[in-house]
Amino acid sequence: MARVVVNVMPKQEILDPQGQAVVRALGRIGISGVKDVRQGKRFELEVEDGVSSEDLEKIAADLLANTVIEDYDIVVESARKEA
Fold it and tell me: Which UniProt keywords apply (predicted)?
């Protein structure tokens, strides 16, 4: 078993209203110096050994991300050994 993390973020050219709202809120609570915030999604998957990298790509591209407006990356965090 392994833990796989899929991070999904808006593409750079896509407006991120949630990120902009966070930047504005930072000013209201007295924090300066943060120029930009991009808000995305993180998915953690526990997968069995038989799940291939091609399967993970399909999951990310077809189900977790809207590839028209979002980019994603896939990170295999750890392989877990069962006792």
Answer: ATP-binding, Cytoplasm, Ligase, Nucleotide-binding, Purine biosynthesis
